[in-house]
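Example 168, ligand GNR.
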Amino acid sequence: MALLSILEYPDPRLRLLAQPVEAFDVSLWRLVDDLCETLGVSKGIGLAAPQTGDRRQVLVIDLSGGEAEPEVYINPEILASTLPCLVEESCLSVPGVVGNVVRSSQVRVRAYSREGKAFERDLEGMPAVCLQHEMDHLVGKLFVDRLSLMRRLQFRFGASARARAKAA
Ligand code: GNR
Ligand code: NI
């Protein structure tokens, strides 16, 4: 197992489209283990492979605070979703920023386990929100893209001011 480093905004690799996993082999199992270990020390509730520079459709979720094994979702697809709600989110790849985004409060997801077995699961509340946040990472989307116009402008202004301060 190894700790992976987490890419941060504005790293362009966070914007790439992840590819479906085709081989359920030791390289995949190593990635899953490393994502779980990295999630464990990061204090996050979820982590997606593209946040570590890996372009496979793999994500892990742990809302137990490290008490349970993280849930693993490979090649996830949302089959149905209901009831939009407003949730305050943060992201390990956008440190220091929080903001409200609209998400579905219930989703039905289909995915593969690390052994390559397909499963379907109904999620509600924070697990549902976290899954949607992680699935966004698989298509190069960040929660800051979903903020209100005003909040997004505040974020962009702050980000460009920080970049200028760093360059100076
Ligand atoms: O740790 C995280 N907290 C969080 C809070 C609200 C909604 C989504 C999240 S996911 C985030 C970890 C992360 O960046 N995963 O990609
Ligand atoms: Ni994130």
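Summary: Residues 44-48, 51, 89-93, 129-130, 133-134, 137 surround GNR (ligand 1) (CB under 6 Å).
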